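Appendix B, record 7
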Amino acid sequence: MSDKKAEAEQPLIDGKGLRTDGRKLDELRPIHLEVGNLSRADGSAYIEHGRNKIVAAVYGPRELHPRHLAQSDRALLRVIYRMATFSVSDRKRPAPSRREHEISMVLRQALEPMLFLKMYPRAAIDVFIQVLEADGGSRCASATVAALALADAGIPMRGLVAGVAAGKIDGKIAVDLSDIEDKIGDADVPTVMAPERGEITLLQMDGKLTKKELATALQMAEEGIHQIHEMQKEVLLKKYAKIRDQIAEVSPELLEKVEEIKEEKPKEEEPKEEEPKPTRKRTKRTTPAKAEEKTKTTKKTKTPKKKKTESPKETE
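Structure tokens (predicted):
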């Protein structure tokens, strides 16, 4: 109890305007990203966001079981967020908590708008997120690493999403809150968005903020998300650069052909004058059934007999 009271009384911002970990109000924690670290998964990624350590694995598109959950016009996206028992200071129970179920649902709603699920009807795409160590902002970091894993799996996407939490500590707006700032701070605003499209896919708030403070928090979160998005692109480019080098060692001819295809430009063909098409007379086609009907009708119909005109009788 004494430790918690000491934490509550501890100022989160010192006289120089620096936070407890030495960061400025608009500064992110150190971030490290990796892609393709799990060989058994179709796509995988790993993130270290501050002291957060999270792994994400993607399996699919694959056959959906049980089949009665299948949707005829799109794939089913399933996101499972779990925290390891040793991820927090107080040992967590192995059974999934209500918070984990909530975060799983929220992350699915944040990722779903960015995926072309209609390309895989009656299929399933499973995303498993395992938190190895938690230190505040784990749901935002999970959205960042899950988007990387989906891209690594080759799932068609409208764009990558990234997340960061902004909030209010000691009466000032700050970005990327740590665990202590999240617990003792005045407000917390987790935000996930697709920077290239300018769309927010997840927005929550715990606490009270004025309209001006909320606008400032969203602006700071957007700037931080743009920085994380650039890191995501760099990691993906590095991975595919390695794959390119491996292909060059095995079959350099294949890369040469690819480059030739890229350099080739489609030749503009001159429009050809359309030749007039010969007109054909349409002839009515009679089916054998109709022909039989016609013959029957001709047999049945008899020519009407001509009436004899009587000549006028002669007068005697």
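Remarks on this record: Residues 17-255 form a domain with the Ribosomal Protein S5; domain 2 fold (CATH 3.30.230.70). Helices lie at 2-9, 98-111, 138-152, 179-184, 211-250, 252-263, 288-300.
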